[in-house]
Amino acid sequence: MTPDERDLLYRAAYFGDACAKCGRAFGPDEPVYRWQYASVLNIVHAPVCAACNGDTQEVEEWHESPCDGCGRPVFNNHIRSRRWTVCSQRCRIRIETHQRREKRQASRAQKICVNCGTAFSPKRSDAHTCRPACRQALYRRRSVTDSNLWQVATRQEA
Prior knowledge:
By secondary structure, the protein is α+β, with helices and mostly antiparallel strands. The protein is 41% helix and 16% strand.
């Protein structure tokens, strides 16, 4: 594989906007065929156009499903228990970013203040109190309770 072919392969695998064989740009709803290429370092899944797919090896069965990132029709020549069907690495990154964003937003959902019991929207995912005054009151209550427990424990030992 020449350096130009390798650059074309990796660019097609990442962006998914051109064929990995001929370099022709895909249309927005044009179906792509995902081929698996063995590289020196790893295995690369790159999209190929319908014309280049006919030039390559024959596959008995193609499995069609839309890309979860952009909606483009994707034909895979293998079935795996994957989480998503993607046409490129960029679509995979888009899906993972969206899932991380939803997870962060869920962790910052409405909470109940531990000190005063009011509902609040935390600015941080690990917040337990609604405002600094409640945080300080909770700290003071904890420190008094902890010191009382220490005094009781030391009296029982004596």
